């Protein structure tokens, strides 16, 4: 986004070459110009997407970006709008309510108070001009993991984006980043928004984009509001634009869905969020080796260290367990198991092979299981896959864990409590191919497959 700002402001002011030189300002000079955390070298920027629905303005997308001037990196944490937070003067509410109560200022103070980090600047985009912006850069190419289908006749909305490699123009891109009618709900939408941002940034680095700068500059005033000055925007934009893409990390606020007094919330793990911003970038990069760069290890974690029990799934375990049973179940058995999973589940990568947790999540979602989180385990030496649940889990969560294990063919000996688990969690081990094979076979029973396209909406 800052990369867009530098290009547009440079062209729009008519002093392109002077601002280009400003874009390569040394870090020491940038620190003299912009507000930042003197201890960490970070500039924290609140990123907001505003939607105007029937004259009512609301924040539809919220994220906090930390630009690390010293470590030459950036990290972006998306905050689900249903996150339960304490809003100054209004008590415990959903995060996006703070914008309705007091605009950017109140939203800013709410995020800062609940995450425990200072916020130096904000950037707000108007979704109304989003399609035009995407069309100006010639659309965006990306991979759509599954078909996105939703029809709202009353709202005159018809979303239908096929799975596979797709070229999205402005209107279809808006449909892609707004879609939330699948098992992942708002969390899935946040992940798609992050996927789109990365694809758009890759597009903007192409040489032919430079020819579209004048048109995009005309749009900049309409869809962006910020308290960054032009020179600050150019300097920060130039810094971010030159970063190695591998040093820009995206994550979703860790937590879990819940209902309180009949209202759905995302219950955040604020400590996990603070850890994401506090850890040195090298540690985050090291923890992120097991999955795609868009999903750092933000789960509160499944760590066997200190759990107080031997872990037979780890290479350090005291007893080698037998591999899971891969026999195919009947359609009736699969359907009964899926119906017996009342709670959302998580999937963690315990092997270190890229993309495993996302692949497992897609298998489960096709069968109708609500996967609320994917990420990395605390280590990658799991010999066999586990299912872990919170130590003080309710009977419902415990039953969810046992049922998830049966669905994956994981033996009861490998279903255990974990001190830091926040939901029933599948931790993939070196036998992940066996797990995938079993899930694939059972998708073929006719029970799954149609679920993602059925319009099913789960609790967020």
Question: Could you describe the 3D structure shown?
Answer:
- The chain is α/β, with parallel strands linked by helices.
- The protein has helices spanning 2-13, 16-22, 27-33, 97-115, 130-136, 170-178, 185-204, 213-223, 230-241, 270-278, 281-287, 331-339, 356-366, 395-408, 432-443, and strands at residues 42-53, 56-68, 73-78, 84-87, 91-94, 121-126, 140-144, 148-152, 157-161, 164-168, 224-226, 248-252, 255-260, 263-268, 345-349, 371-376, 386-390, 415-418, 425-428.
- The strands form six sheets. A six-stranded mixed beta sheet has the order 11-6-1-2-3-12, sandwiched between helices. A five-stranded mixed beta sheet has the order 16-15-19-17-18, with helices on one face.
- Strand 4 and strand 5 (91-94) form a beta hairpin.
- Mean pLDDT is 75; it is low at 9-17, 289-328 and 444-460.
Outline the fold blueprint.
Layout: H1 2-13, H2 16-22, H3 27-33, E1 42-53, E2 56-68, E3 73-78, E4 84-87, E5 91-94, H4 97-115, E6 121-126, H5 130-136, E7 140-144, E8 148-152, E9 157-161, E10 164-168, H6 170-178, H7 185-204, H8 213-223, E11 224-226, H9 230-241, E12 248-252, E13 255-260, E14 263-268, H10 270-278, H11 281-287, H12 331-339, E15 345-349, H13 356-366, E16 371-376, E17 386-390, H14 395-408, E18 415-418, E19 425-428, H15 432-443
Parallel strand pairs: 1-6, 3-12, 15-16, 15-19, 17-18
Antiparallel strand pairs: 1-2, 2-3, 4-5, 6-11, 7-10, 8-9, 13-14, 17-19
């Amino acid at each position: 986004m800052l990369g867009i700002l530098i290009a547009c402001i440079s062209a729009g002011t008519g002093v392109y070459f002077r601002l280009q030189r400003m874009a390569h300002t040394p870090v020491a000079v940038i620190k003299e110009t912009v507000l930042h955390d003197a201890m960490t070298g970070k500039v924290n920027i609140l990123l907001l997407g505003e939607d105007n629905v029937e004259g009512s303005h609301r924040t539809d997308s919220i994220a906090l970006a930390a630009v690390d001037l010293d470590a030459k990196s950036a990290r972006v944490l998306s905050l689900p709008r249903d996150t339960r937070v304490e809003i100054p003067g209004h008590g415990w509410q959903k995060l996006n309510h703070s914008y309705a109560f007091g605009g950017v200022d109140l939203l800013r103070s709410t995020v800062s108070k609940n995450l425990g980090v200072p916020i130096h600047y904000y950037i707000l985009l108007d979704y109304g001009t989003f399609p035009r912006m995407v069309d100006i850069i010639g659309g965006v190419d990306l991979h759509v993991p599954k078909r996105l289908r939703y029809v709202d006749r009353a709202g005159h909305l018809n979303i239908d984006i096929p799975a596979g490699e797709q070229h999205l123009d402005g209107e279809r891109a808006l449909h892609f980043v707004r879609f939330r009618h699948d098992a992942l709900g708002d969390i899935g939408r946040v992940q798609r928004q992050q996927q789109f941002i990365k694809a758009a940034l890759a597009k903007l680095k192409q040489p032919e984009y430079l020819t579209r700068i004048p048109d995009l500059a005309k749009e900049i005033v309409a869809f962006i509001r910020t308290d960054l000055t032009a020179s600050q925007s150019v300097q920060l934009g130039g810094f971010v634009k030159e970063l190695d893409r591998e040093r820009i990390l995206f994550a979703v606020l860790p937590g879990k869905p819940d209902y309180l007094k009949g209202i759905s919330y995302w219950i955040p793990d604020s400590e996990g969020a603070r850890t994401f911003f506090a850890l040195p970038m090298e540690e985050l990069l090291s923890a992120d080796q097991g999955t795609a760069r868009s999903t750092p290890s933000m789960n509160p974690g499944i760590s066997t260290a200190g759990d107080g029990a031997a872990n037979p799934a780890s290479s350090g375990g005291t007893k080698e367990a037998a591999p899971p049973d891969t026999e195919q179940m009947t359609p009736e058995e699969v359907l009964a198991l899926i119906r017996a999973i009342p709670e959302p589940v998580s999937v963690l990568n315990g092997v270190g092979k890229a993309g495993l947790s996302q692949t497992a999540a897609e298998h489960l979602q096709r069968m109708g299981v609500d996967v609320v989180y994917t990420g990395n385990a605390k280590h990658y030496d799991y010999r066999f896959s586990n299912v872990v649940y919170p130590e003080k889990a309710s009977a419902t969560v415990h039953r969810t864990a046992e049922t998830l294990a049966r669905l994956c063919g994981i033996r009861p000996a490998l279903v255990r409590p974990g001190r830091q688990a926040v939901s029933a969690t599948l931790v993939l081990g070196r036998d992940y191919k066996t797990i995938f094979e079993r899930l694939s076979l059972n998708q073929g029973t006719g029970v799954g497959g149609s679920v993602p396209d059925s319009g099913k909406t789960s609790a967020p």
